[in-house]
Amino acid sequence: MARFLVSGISALVSDVRAVLGEHGAESVGVDDIDDVPAACAQAGPASFNGYIQLPAMFSITGDTAVDRVHHYFRDGVLARFPAMSAALPTLAAGARLVFVMGVLPPPVATEDDVAARAALVRLLGNAARADKQPDGLRVAVLGSASTPKEIALTALGRSPEWESLTEGFSSSSYADWRVELLGMMQAEM
Questions:
Q1: Cβ contacts of residue 64 below 8 Å, gap of 6+?
Q2: Secondary structure of residue 155 in the 3-state scheme
Q3: What residues are paired with 28 via a beta bridge?
Q4: What is the DSSP string of 92-104?
Q5: Can you list the positions of beta strands (E) in the chain?
Q6: Residue 77: Cβ-neighbour burial (10 angstroms; 0-12, 13-18, 19+)
Q7: Angle at Cα 16 formed by Cα 13 and Cα 22, nearest 5°?
Q8: How far apart (Å, rounded) are the C-alpha atoms in residues 126 and 122?
Q9: Sequence-separated (6 or more) residues with CB below 8 Å from residue 148
Q10: Residues 55, 8: contact at Cβ < 8 Å?
Q11: What is this structure's pTM?
Q12: C-alpha to C-alpha distance for 49 and 13, rounded to whole angstroms
């Protein structure tokens, strides 16, 4: 059975864990990214098939825009790095790492910031992949609009787009659909 570590905002952690459970996976949830090292120490080496790092909740502080942006990056984006260092030993060979970007508060919500945060998260993913050589760590970065189902399916290595297209089909209904589709074809000679 697949087992995942999920960290981030409590409500989102709960929703993603519920979807993972619906797909037969176990998970450990951590609401505070600073608690990831303790959860990893308790889990032990190679105990997770993936780590889903969701956005964290915190307040932006500072008197100037420069101070607020600095605080946001230091306590937001850069807080992901120590959590990743703690999680790496707990990831089994072939594990999946899924980053989900956060929603930006208005004082720091610029196109440049989005690009900078995405670059830092990709850099973190590449560093994690380098540290896990030759274990084959697979990394995905998802946007803040991703649903819990999309996040969980990505962690499970399944395509959220394909899942939504085939939702509700049973194997017999697919066979019926295929016969109907092929029956619509005409051969010209």
A1: none
A2: helix
A3: 5
A4: EEEEEEEEEPPPP
A5: 3-7, 26-30, 48-53, 91-100, 138-142
A6: buried
A7: 140
A8: 6
A9: 12, 15, 16, 18, 19
A10: yes
A11: 0.81
A12: 17
Q: What is the mean pLDDT of each run of 10 residues along the chain (189 residues)?
A: 96 97 97 94 97 84 79 80 95 95 72 80 91 89 92 89 54 56 54
Q: What is the 3-state secondary structure (H, E, C) of 104-134?
A: CCHHHCCHHHHHHHHHHHHHHHHHHHHHCCC
CB 14, CB 61: distance < 8 Å: no
By the 10 Å C-beta count (0-12 exposed, 13-18 middle, 19+ buried), 43 is classed as middle
What pLDDT does 133 receive? 86
CA distance 137 to 99: 13
38, 63 Cβ separation under 8 angstroms:
no
Of 52, 48, 75, 60, nearest to 139 (Cα)? 52
Strands 91-100 and 48-53, bridge-based pairing: parallel
DSSP state of 9: -
Q: Which amino acid is at 161?
A: E
The one-letter amino acid code at 99 reads F
pLDDT on residue 189: 45
